[in-house]
């Protein structure tokens, strides 16, 4: 009887402990939900991100690394962060490449002497120029870099290579489709030169059929400078028409002229602002984006949207009176598009100073409707995040996936740290990416604000609860 009584007491105690733990968890989730609601309310009713983006896009414009516009963006965003009364705002020096486009590019193909069709074209970032009078040669079509070997040097030498591998329309995640096709843009000129090509034309990386050519970075590897050949992108409509024409008239001539140039590196800056943590100031939570863009369009989606969202995270905390336990730092990185110098330098300086970053979040996928986040995290870290999914369900921002974060925060990765990326709906992103079509008018104010609030909510959760230990 005595043993039965003891057993009953133990069971009752265990039940009480479970109920207490459950009640504590419910109270914690309720408190978190209330705090997150404040971020969304403030962002949607009194947000500043859209106004900041308007200035970046329409008063400054495209912000190619090393340009005057990039430096104007540094000055503007620093001034805005100064106005937020943060604990600290500063500029971090970084040397960046300076590639200039020069006068507008021009291209056409000729089916018969004097019978030409103009082609929308743009030089790829980092490309060399054509000779002053341009290049006119035969043109051969391949489906990606693997197609070079199949065609062979005898058919490529002395001609222009036309890379026409489209982004895979069957892939729902458009970033995966982009990744599968981007090698022809990045390495196409290097590989085609080995077969004796005199130039490279690449189909723009977008699912949309349009007349906008899309630029992007390319590289020549370690080969001799004298062997470098010019590379440019043509619009998808032009690629479709050119491909059809080649099937009917494989002997056509293609002409293009571009005047781009690589100049010596120049000084620039990352822009950094922070709110000091009240309990664990040495633990840093970073939220960031890249301030540079290509010179086509005004860089509204890539990545002006991410920059103003990162700034808005700090502003929202100030507005609603949230005092973080840990140091919250917004970093606007310079030179993600053609060098990643800002992200690399930031990580180098952070390690030299012995700084401890526990979590970093980047927004570099456009200002579209946020769907959730991706996490570069181990199992225990990801399970911690999954427990927070219900908090995001009322906002329809609860697609949490393991794997992937952001290019600028990648160099910062260390053991025990979690990296994450905001994941907006991606279906329209590559309609605008790296083209004249990336302009402020294509950013929806409410979608932009929802993304900023979601970022603030995730930063808050990591600040309030820390990062669990990875076994």
Nutshell version of this structure?
With 471 residues, this protein is an alpha/beta fold. Helix content is 39%, strand content 24%.
Walkthrough of the structure:
The chain is α/β, with parallel strands linked by helices and 471 residues long. The chain has 2 domains: 34-99 and 264-465, Zn peptidases (Aminopeptidase); 103-259, Glucose Oxidase, domain 1 (3-Layer(bba) Sandwich). The chain contains 14 helices and 16 strands. The strands form 2 sheets. An 8-stranded mixed beta sheet has the order 1-10-12-11-13-16-14-15, sandwiched between helices. Helix 1 runs antiparallel to helix 14 and helix 2 runs antiparallel to helix 9. The longest helix is centred in the first third of the chain and has 45 residues, at 2-46. Mean pLDDT is 94; it is low at 13-25.
Question: Keywords for this structure?
Answer:
471 residues, alpha/beta, Aminopeptidase, Glucose Oxidase, domain 1, 2 domains, 8-stranded mixed beta sheet, 39% helix, elongated
pLDDT below 50 for ≥5 consecutive residues: which ranges?
A: 13-25
> Looking at this structure, what is the CATH superfamily of the largest domain?
Zn peptidases
Head-to-tail CA distance between termini: 43 Å
Range of helix content:
25-40%
The string of secondary-structure elements, in order, is: HHHEEEEEHHEHHEEHEEEHEHEEHHEEHH
Radius of gyration: 26 Å
Q: β content, as a range?
A: 15-25%
SS content category: alpha/beta
Strands, count: 16
- Major sheet, described briefly? 8 strands, mixed
Morphology call: elongated
The overall pLDDT average reads 94
Q: What's the CATH architecture name of the largest domain?
A: 3-Layer(aba) Sandwich
Number of domain units = 2
Number of helical segments with 4 or more residues: 14
Order of strands, main sheet, comes to 1-10-12-11-13-16-14-15
CATH domain fold name of the largest domain:
Aminopeptidase
CATH class of the largest domain: Alpha Beta
């Amino acid at each position: 009887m005595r043993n039965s009584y003891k057993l009953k007491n133990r069971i009752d105690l265990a039940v009480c402990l479970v109920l207490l733990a459950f009640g504590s968890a419910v109270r914690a989730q309720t408190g978190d939900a209330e705090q997150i609601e404040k971020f969304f309310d403030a962002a949607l009713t009194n947000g500043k991100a859209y106004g900041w983006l308007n200035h970046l896009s329409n008063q400054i414009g495209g912000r190619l690394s090393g340009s005057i516009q990039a430096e104007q963006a540094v000055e503007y965003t620093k001034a805005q962060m100064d106005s937020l009364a943060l604990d600290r705002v500063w500029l971090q020096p970084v040397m960046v490449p300076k590639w200039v486009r020069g006068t507008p590019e021009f291209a056409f193909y000729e089916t018969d002497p004097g019978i030409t069709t103009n082609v929308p074209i743009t030089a790829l970032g980092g490309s060399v120029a054509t000779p002053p009078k341009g290049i006119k040669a035969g043109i051969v079509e391949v489906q990606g870099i693997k197609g070079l070997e199949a065609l062979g040097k005898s058919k490529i030498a002395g001609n222009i290579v036309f890379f026409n591998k489209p982004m895979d329309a069957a892939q729902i995640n458009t970033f995966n489709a982009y990744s599968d096709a981007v090698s022809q843009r990045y390495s196409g000129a290097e590989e085609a030169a080995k077969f004796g090509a005199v130039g490279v034309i690449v189909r723009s990386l977008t699912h949309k059929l349009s007349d906008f050519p899309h630029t992007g970075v390319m590289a020549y590897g370690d080969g001799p400078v004298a062997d470098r050949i010019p590379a440019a992108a043509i619009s998808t409509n032009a690629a479709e028409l050119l491909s059809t024409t080649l099937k009917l008239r494989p002997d056509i001539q293609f002409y293009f002229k571009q005047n781009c140039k690589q100049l010596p590196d120049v000084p620039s800056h990352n822009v950094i602002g922070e709110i000091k943590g009240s309990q664990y100031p040495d633990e840093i939570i970073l939220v960031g984006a890249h301030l540079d863009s290509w010179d086509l369009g005004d860089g509204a989606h890539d990545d002006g949207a991410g920059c103003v969202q990162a700034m808005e995270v700090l502003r929202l905390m100030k507005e609603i009176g949230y005092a973080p336990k840990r140091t919250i730092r917004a970093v606007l990185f310079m030179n993600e598009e053609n060098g990643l110098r800002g992200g690399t330098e930031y990580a180098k300086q952070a390690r030299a100073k012995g700084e401890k970053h526990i979590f970093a979040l980047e927004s570099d996928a456009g200002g579209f409707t946020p769907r959730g986040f991706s996490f570069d995290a181990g199992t225990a870290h990801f399970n911690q995040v999954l427990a927070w999914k219900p908090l995001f369900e009322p906002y329809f921002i609860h697609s949490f996936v393991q794997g992937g974060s952001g290019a600028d925060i990648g160099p910062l990765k260390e053991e025990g740290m979690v990296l994450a990326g905001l994941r907006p709906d991606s279906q329209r992103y590559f309609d605008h990416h790296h083209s004249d079509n990336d302009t402020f008018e294509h950013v929806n104010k409410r979608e932009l604000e929802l993304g900023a609030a979601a970022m603030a909510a995730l930063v808050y959760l990591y600040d309030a609860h820390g990062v669990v230990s990875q076994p």
